From TrEMBL:
Spans through the membrane: 6-23, 30-48, 68-92, 104-121, 127-144, 181-199, 219-242, 254-274, 280-301, 308-325
Organism from which the protein derives: Psychromarinibacter sediminicola
Localization annotation: Membrane
Pfam families named among the record's database cross-references: Na_Ca_ex
Record-annotated Sodium/calcium exchanger membrane region domain positions: 8-144, 184-324
Keywords: Membrane, Transmembrane, Transmembrane helix
One cellular component term from this protein's GO annotations in UniProt: plasma membrane
A single GO BP: intracellular calcium ion homeostasis
Topological relation to the membrane, as annotated: Multi-pass membrane protein
Protein name: Calcium/sodium antiporter
UniProt GO molecular function: calcium channel activity; calcium, potassium:sodium antiporter activity
Gene3D superfamilies: NCX, central ion-binding region, NCX, peripheral helical region
């Protein structure tokens, strides 16, 4: 039993801690090189909390465990909306005021729809992966232009970065106490090593768990792996919820879901092309579309997610896990 759970949870610890060191070092390097704080926030910091999902999905795909690779992506998006946003709303009701978040909510749904349709029609090859990554690059570039011009209307990418910086002020760019360049570079490389090592342990533990208990790798990917790699989003959204920053908590979830589909799905398809398991295509992708549509409805109607509705989201996640668990 220990030889299954130890690499699983040990891998998660290495992933999350390594991801923080990687972002911290990269931010300090960029700061020393004179990169704009806004660029740092929208790229290095914004993508930072998605590093565990990225490494895990790529390593799972390379290990011929597509259920874990794509289950991690889809399961993380479902957990972000139902579980993590539910917990944040339970701490403090969420109202979306930013016009930019309405735009980003539409991008999130469009990405989820594209992923679901393509996964149902064909394997995710390198052309699809390249298109997803290019779409993410275009989205971040457009977000950068908007944030620079209209600083009063922040979007999901900015909020995702802000949520991480507020949970850990040490990740904020342009700090006066930034480490020397060589030290920062070593910290980033050390973090990258920990992330890669943690991803390997996590995938090995997840595969062993699935085989040992007779549970499909897809279910493990959709639940344990997905929730585990979403811990940074949970922490940052909870901090935003405690501070009653509804837009930041909401934007953090929307930004994470866009990164998961376009970035992690795209890089996974680029590095290890393959098909999405049929059970994800026929059920879990539909759940992802449903919860994404609910999130878009909240953004566009400026509806308030009350504590009671936050509890309903958490119960909804429990029901989802109950349905897919054997």
């Amino acid at each position: 039993m220990t030889d299954v759970w130890l690499p699983l949870f040990g891998g998660l610890v290495l992933l999350i801690s390594g991801g923080e060191f990687l972002v911290r070092g990269a931010v300090n390097v960029a700061t020393r090189l004179g990169v704009s704080p806004l660029v740092i926030g929208l790229t290095l910091v914004g993508f930072g909390t998605s590093t565990p999902e990225l490494v895990t999905s790529v390593q799972a795909a390379l290990s011929e465990a597509p259920g874990i690779a794509y289950g991690n992506i889809v399961g993380s998006n479902i957990a972000n909306v139902l579980l993590i946003l539910g917990i944040a709303a339970l701490l403090a009701p969420i109202t979306v005021a930013s016009q930019a978040l309405k735009r980003d909510g539409a991008v999130m749904v469009a990405a989820a729809v594209a992923f679901a349709i393509i996964a149902a029609l064909m394997p995710l090859g390198r052309v699809v992966g390249a298109a997803f990554v290019a779409s993410l690059g275009l989205y971040v570039w457009l977000a950068f232009r908007q944030e620079r011009v209209a600083a009063s209307s922040y979007g999901a990418v900015y909020d995702k970065s802000l949520a991480l910086q507020e949970a850990d002020p040490g990740l904020a760019p342009a700090r006066k106490d930034a480490s020397p360049l060589l030290v920062s570079l070593l910290i980033a490389l050390g973090g990258l090593f920990l992330v890669v090592l943690g991803g390997r342990f996590l995938v090995e533990g997840a595969v062993s768990l699935a085989r040992g208990f007779g549970i499909s790798e897809t279910v493990i990917g959709l639940t344990i792996v997905a929730v585990g790699t979403s811990m940074p989003e949970l922490v940052t959204s909870v901090v935003a919820g405690i501070r009653k920053q509804g837009d930041v908590a909401f934007g953090n979830i929307v930004g994470s879901n866009i990164y998961n589909v376009l970035g992690i799905g795209g890089f996974t398809a680029l590095i290890a092309p393959g098909g999405v398991p049929a059970e994800i295509v026929t059920f879990d992708n539909l759940v992802m579309l449903g919860v994404s549509a609910v999130l878009l409805l909240v953004a566009w109607t400026s509806l308030r997610i009350s504590r009671l509705e936050g509890l309903a989201l958490i119960i909804g996640y429990g029901a989802y896990v109950y349905l897919i668990w054997p």
